[in-house]
């Protein structure tokens, strides 16, 4: 059978800082890609326009018109409805207060069928089908970045619960503990999320704690502490950075081990901006911090870094057309 363009799919990963688009074959090969910064102003229409532009550019790079694609999958933050393509409560996107028909809007702009899934779920699925999770039937994806997202594969299938499963960032690691960006207290993300770590670093810096974190940020012309800046500060043996990363690792150890105690998955895949940047040595550190909390400690799960890296989200989104 001739595969042709009809077998190619589009994938869009909508993040809080960037939009990554890719044209992907059923085997997961990427033939064109493009990225755009996520708009910081405006509303859902502006975000969808930037997404459509990125996908059109990726399609041009692959040499295919967008309306010839077998479908376009989107991994989006917020409350995503796979049946209707509506996205609500995407609080890290500009002006996204109510529910917005993302699927229909993109479909009208690009002339192809669009399916919308949760960003972390689709990235976990990509690792399961094409990446570090291939050898396993059950796994937990932990995306350690701006926040801490989680995705689950149980018995070979994505587990989404009633739509909100996998929110491992909001597993409680300390009752009455640090304030989480979600507004609650003591969540794992309140210690391990990049955004929460940055807030804590700013607070300590303002109190007079010495750190190179903000000098490095200024040198690089950035306005936030990216994963690269944290890495650089650790290379300089910056004490505050070391302290806050250690605090994050302890929280990840407790939270991920608790999830493993509940689910007994075969493997844990660590992805996300910080997870991929820090890589293997830090996955080992997370495993070490998990160990005291594991109920069955002689048989810990396999631990891996996400293999598909930055493109995992877009590739995973294209897999929404595999089902
Ligand atoms: Zn929380």
Structure description:
This protein is of the alpha/beta class and 323 residues long. It has 11 helices and 13 strands. The strands form 3 sheets. The protein has a 5-stranded mixed sheet, sandwiched between helices. The chain has a 5-stranded mixed sheet with strand order 11-10-9-12-13, with helices on both faces. A 3-stranded antiparallel sheet has the order 5-6-7. A hairpin with a 3-residue loop joins strand 1 and strand 2. Helix 3 packs across helix 11 and helix 8 crosses helix 10. It is globular. The model has no long low-confidence stretch (mean pLDDT 94). Bound molecules: zinc ion.
Number of separate helices: 11
* Shape, principal axes of CA atoms: globular
Biggest β-sheet description? 5 strands, mixed
Beta-strand proportion:
15-25%
Question: Strand-and-helix sequence, N→C?
Answer: EEEHEEEEHEHEEEHHHHHEHHEH
Low-confidence stretches: none
Quaternary structure annotation? single chain
Structural class: alpha/beta
**Order of strands across the biggest sheet?**
3-2-1-4-8
Fraction in helix: 25-40%
List all distinct small molecules, including ions and cofactors, that are bound in this structure.
Answer: zinc ion
């Amino acid at each position: 059978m001739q595969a042709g363009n009809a077998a190619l799919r589009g994938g869009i990963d909508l993040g809080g800082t960037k939009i990554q688009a890719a044209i992907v074959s059923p085997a997961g090969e990427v033939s064109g890609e493009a990225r755009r910064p996520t708009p910081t102003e405006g509303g859902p229409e502006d975000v969808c326009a930037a997404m459509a532009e990125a996908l059109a550019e990726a399609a041009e790079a692959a040499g295919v018109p967008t309306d010839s694609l077998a479908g376009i999958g989107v991994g989006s933050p917020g409350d995503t409805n796979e049946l209707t393509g509506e996205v609500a409560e995407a609080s890290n996107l500009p002006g996204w207060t109510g529910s917005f028909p993302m699927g229909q809007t993109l479909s009208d702009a690009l002339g192809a069928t669009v399916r919308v899934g949760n960003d972390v779920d689709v990235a976990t699925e990509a690792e399961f089908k094409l990446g570090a999770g291939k050898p396993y039937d059950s796994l937990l994806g932990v995306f350690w970045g701006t926040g801490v997202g989680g995705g689950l594969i149980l018995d070979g299938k994505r587990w989404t619960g009633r739509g909100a499963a996998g929110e491992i960032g909001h597993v409680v690691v300390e009752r009455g503990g640090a304030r989480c960006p979600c507004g609650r207290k003591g969540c794992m993300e309140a210690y391990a999320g990049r955004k929460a770590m940055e807030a804590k670093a700013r607070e300590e810096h303002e109190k007079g704690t010495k750190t190179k974190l903000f000098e490095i940020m200024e040198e690089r012309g950035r306005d936030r502490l990216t994963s690269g800046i944290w890495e650089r500060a650790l290379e300089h043996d910056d004490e505050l950075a070391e302290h806050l990363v250690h605090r994050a690792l302890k929280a990840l150890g407790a939270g991920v081990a608790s999830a493993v105690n509940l689910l007994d998955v075969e493997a844990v895949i660590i992805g996300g901006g910080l997870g991929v940047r820090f890589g293997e040595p830090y996955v080992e550190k997370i495993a070490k911090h998990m160990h005291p909390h594991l109920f069955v400690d002689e048989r810990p799960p396999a631990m891996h870094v996400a293999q598909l890296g930055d493109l995992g989200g877009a590739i995973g989104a294209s897999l929404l057309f595999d089902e």
